[in-house]
Amino acid sequence: MNSPISVRDISAAEHLAWLRTQPSASFLQTPAWADVKKEWRAESVGWFEGEQMVGAALVLHRSLPRIKRSLAYVPEGPCIDWSSPRLVELLRALRDHLTSKGAFALRIGPPVATHRWGTATIKAAIADPAVRRYDEATPDVVEPVGTAVVAQLERLGFKHLSPDDGFAAGQPEYVFQVPLAGRTEADVLAGMNQLWRRNIKKTLKNGVTVRVGDASDLPAFHRTYVETAERDRFTPRGLAYFEQMYAALSAEDPERIRVYLAEHEGDVLAATVFIRVGEHAWYSYGASTAAKRELQGSTAIQWRMMQDSLAAGASVYDLRGITNTVDEANPHIGLIRFKVGTGGEAVRLAGEWDLPLNRLLYKAFDLYMKRR
């Protein structure tokens, strides 16, 4: 007979110890991420079958103004066995625990894939004027676990958040990943398109160097990032945010976060923030200068991060979010082509889901966020 499943508060040390027994987890589910997201109240919780720990989560709480009730957010989590036959019990145990803590809604982002599109399929979709979005192109792989999770969430009353919904989803539903498991550097290079391989050779010929920096290099990264933000018209985060992220993640594990800089004759051409948890490596933030673009600093830095991911035993190199578009006219198509050149795949995740625990407060919060 199965032991009952319960959820209870755990310490950051217990949380981290459990994560270290797992192949990988999102960096948004590490205890250290609580120190990055200071504007949220955070707690670590664990799932137990009897006395055996079978899951963990970082829960971020955002309170309603003047009311001691919160939205409980589990970004890119929780870290549970999503293929478990006891999934309903696992999710209900979390719901009950957070309801007792005064949460008016639960938001989760199951870290499971539902669909995958390979490079040949993506190229064909871009070339086809009848296809505008990934979800209009036939996927190469439909993942049974992810598909089952989505169906189960719908049955349990969870509401799928699309970017068009009120207080929209915070984490990307579509990402681009380069599979690394069982591959060598030569395999990864062979999987790239001709332009990528040619540009990697060009960076070596032109004397572009890539180095791993430290906290003292964050201002140089940030200057490049602010220049990129002005060019691409997005609002940049402040330097203090990256300093806090670097300090928190590196204190938890010295191998967790890195700053990379691609340089040429003393000039920074590109700079990135790289994060790794177990077998999952992320290109988290990236920036490049307009000067010396022909030297391909961005290509050099990506290739170095992929090489280091392979050397660290990572099974996936994650280029994070992409928009759900393969439309030639879309302004993001250049970035999509750049990522497609790596020979990776577009991956649709289960996305973010809300479970209202108090429908009146949930509706009030939705209206509050829409007005902001």
Automatic annotation (TrEMBL):
Keywords: Acyltransferase, Cell shape, Cell wall biogenesis/degradation, Peptidoglycan synthesis, Transferase. Gene3D superfamilies: 3.40.630.30. The keyword Ribosomal protein does not apply. GO terms for biological process: cell wall organization; peptidoglycan biosynthetic process; regulation of cell shape. InterPro entries: Acyl_CoA_acyltransferase, FEMABX, PG_Glycine_Bridge_Synth. It comes from the Bacteria. Belongs to the FemABX family. PANTHER family: LIPID II:GLYCINE GLYCYLTRANSFERASE. This is Peptidoglycan bridge formation protein FemAB. The lineage of its organism: Bacteria, Bacillati, Actinomycetota, Actinomycetes, Micrococcales.
